[in-house]
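Section 4.2 – Deliverable D4.2 (structural model, holo form)

The reporting period included a commitment to supply a predicted holo structure for the target in complex with adenosine-5'-triphosphate. Inputs used:
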Amino acid sequence: MSSVSIRNVHKTYPGGTDRATDDVSLDIADGEFLVLLGPSGCGKTTLLRMLAGLELPDGGSIAIGGRDVTYLPAHRRNLSMVFQSYAVFPHRSVRDNIAFGLTTRRAGRAEIDRQVAWAAELLQLTPYLDRKPAQLSGGQRQRVAVARAIVVDADVLLMDEPLSNLDALLRMEFRTELKKIVQDLGVTTVYVTHDQGEALSLGDRVAVMRSGRIVQLGDPLAVYDTPSEKFVGGFLGSPPMNFLAATLTPDGDRIDVAGTDLPAPAALRGSAGRDVLLGVRAENIEIAGTGGDAPAGTLPARLEVREPTGSAVLLTVSAGDRELKVSAPASFRADPGDVVHLRLPPHTLRLYDAATHQLMENRPS
Ligand code: ATP
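Output (structure tokens):
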């Protein structure tokens, strides 16, 4: 186990115009599970590969356990890696695949047998130890890759989208298992994914990346609750955060959102007339009623689509020219075309600058 310290790391691939990773600094604590989350091409894998020693940065430094490893070859970093493609050796048995890292480290026979038996049991591979990978399902092959990574006593475990080749159900089951295994091992883990659900459920902290940079780093729920910019709110969460154009009233005391007044945060009262974006999560919007007169302080909207999810019902509503997602209790009854009155509880609203899309102020007062 070890801490990781990344300082001002940047990298541009030969022939590339933009930096794949741009001035990234990140400290990962000993035993922490850190998720790198972001859309395709944002630089997650490049950062992970520089940590692994498979790519060299153009500048900056990387330390593992206090030791500068920036230019150290991969095999001298004492890391384990699990890739998206199972990357198991097809001609070797499951047993030999799991033992691979131990064999190359010249571990003794008894040690290898003990470790392989332990990992196989943990990953439910004991009955398959003598099979070849071709005789396994995709999920089992990925278990072999994980078993191979955890048998060596690595300082840091690196995983690059390890679940993305599995079908939805298997993915969810394996995610829980993986979390338990890593939790029990207590090994420092860096996990790359573009799946926001995985990031929220697995990470002690999540680093959200965009265009080679970390744009927000924090506890998953804090990042979900208060995205630092519109991009993060739109990327994290299913459905994504809703955004509504709004204006601070000329006296600066209120926010006008599609003709409905809400109190403005004290810190913004000097910026009268300013255009803002209100961010609000689907589950935080309350339905104050349907049809008839609008209760005071509510936003009228038209129900467009109703999608039951089992535990709730996801509503798509239109308010002016905006579409919003609202999560209502499963028992909620209304039909497409009905008018629903939405209440936006002030403490759940996040305000973003209309031009820069950056968080302005956490909560209206
Ligand atoms: P994905 O989720 O699709 O794997 P990512 O966030 O991991 O994406 P990277 O693979 O790190 O992103 O890629 C970052 C940028 O660097 C992209 O613009 C990509 O096209 C570019 N890139 C990645 N690998 C190479 C390479 N070997 N040569 C040139 N450009 C590369």
